[in-house]
């Protein structure tokens, strides 16, 4: 585990494998472990970099409100700390907005870009209500993780699990102060004006069974990024858990 100071935050990141750097950025989650299901596959041929950003369990900071700019600065600092030149960058969920802003503002740091099951500010009333309810459930330590499982995974995936495993999913996303900060950012982020400025070749991946982030949002994001490629996976929101092999192949083929 490596650690760097970025502003008021002590940001940690892990490195697996060797080769051209591939930075996998988590969204609203406990941290970079959300990528563990596919990180080892990428590490067979790449230097996989797994940062934990503010709002995750591993980071110590001032506890202030999160912004896209703050998190993008942390990803930029990790890439610079590697000293390996521009990196390929993948952002999941809320991190799609973060790495899109990074690519627009710091094009020298991003060789290729992939946005997975993300959105950049254009939503609808369903998304607003879903995020607001998620925030309101922060008062209930039992209901919060159960609701999280319902919006994180597809019905088909949860049905495929043994009851004890499904129950573990429903209790594994525990309430923590960082979660509230992440949800608050998700409710107000908007980087749509950044998308036309992205120069890096970009792959946008939507998830057809995503109960939280409709694949329609991903298609809209792809339409706003010059020459972006769009692909879709039959999965819920946490695609790296539901369809790790398909995700790894799509991203790997795109990155080359």
Reading side by side through the largest sheet, how are the strands ordered?
1-2-4-3-5-6-7-8
How many distinct beta strands? 8
In the CATH hierarchy, the third-tier topology is known as Rossmann fold
Number of domains in the coordinates? 1
Share in β-strands: 15-25%
Overview of this structure, please?
The structure is a single chain. This protein is an alpha/beta fold. The protein has a single domain, classed as Alpha/Beta hydrolase fold, catalytic domain (Rossmann fold, 3-Layer(aba) Sandwich), CATH 3.40.50. Helices cover about 40% and strands about 20% of the residues. It is built from eleven helices and eight strands. α1 packs across α11 (about 245-255). The longest helix is centred in the N-terminal third of the chain and has 15 residues, at about 70-80. The chain is globular, with a radius of gyration of 17 Å.
Index terms:
single chain, about 260 residues, alpha/beta, Rossmann fold, 8-stranded mixed sheet, 8 strands
In short:
With 256 residues, the protein is α/β, with parallel strands linked by helices.
